[in-house]
Amino acid sequence: MPPYAPSPPRPGFWAALDHVQQAALRAAARPRHFAVKAPLVYQGDESDHVIIIERGWAKVTSATVDGHDVVLAVRGPGDLLAESAVLGGRTRSATVTALSPIRALVVPAARFTGFLDAHPQVWMLVTGTFVQRLDDSDRRLKAHVTSKGTRRLAQLLSDLAELSAQHTPPAPDGSIEIGPPLSQEELGSWMDASRETVARALNGLRRDGLIRTGWRRITVVDPPGLRAVADDHD
């Protein structure tokens, strides 16, 4: 099997900064560690800081009116969190929870806006991050409407594999271990499917030799094959 070559990645927020900008932002921040399951921000809280993940993975969830948490996205190394609430002067629209141990930089809102005033070119980067996330949400919403369970899961796992490959290179055989340690329940919440639907889809993808699974661990054995399932419109 030829090694998998993911599509050219779009650099995360931190990687897109130059060394001078990174140094200035680090000087304005305080380092902080978050344990697994620890909340980084709460939905509904006042917006008084932004967070940049240096290491680790987190999930973004929103609470429904009946009290269920819906997974909206994952965030990983280099990602900027809670910027839209700070810049828009609104309360936080989602909760962010650590999926793995996280090391992060926490920047008070006033210092972050001061950093942006001193480095105005970064404003476009922040805006681009916000727009990209809206585009990603729209694309996944369309997939939920038009795709069946197995294809939706293949699309999600393919996207997660390409994201993970930006931070950890594929293995020599081309396989990619998905970085965010998501449970079947979390995958189902993200793709708007039951846990049973996810389990059946995982079994099918495993049977076809496309993935390997363990507890909160998924390895994409055949990335091109999984992408072919994700892109199959029949």
From TrEMBL:
- Please report the stretch or stretches of sequence annotated as the Cyclic nucleotide-binding domain: 13-133
The reply to whether Transmembrane helix figures as a keyword in the UniProt entry is no
Q: Which GO terms describe its cellular component?
A: cytosol
> Which SMART domains has this protein been placed in?
cNMP, HTH_CRP
Q: SUPFAM superfamilies per the record?
A: cAMP-binding domain-like, Winged helix' DNA-binding domain
Would I find Transcription among this entry's keywords? yes
- Coiled coil: which residue ranges? none
Transmembrane segments annotated in the record for this chain: none
GO molecular function annotation: DNA binding; DNA-binding transcription factor activity
Identify the residues that the record assigns to the HTH crp-type domain, covering every copy: 147-224
Q: Which UniProt keywords apply?
A: DNA-binding, Transcription, Transcription regulation
What's the protein name? Cyclic nucleotide-binding domain-containing protein
Native source species: Actinomadura litoris
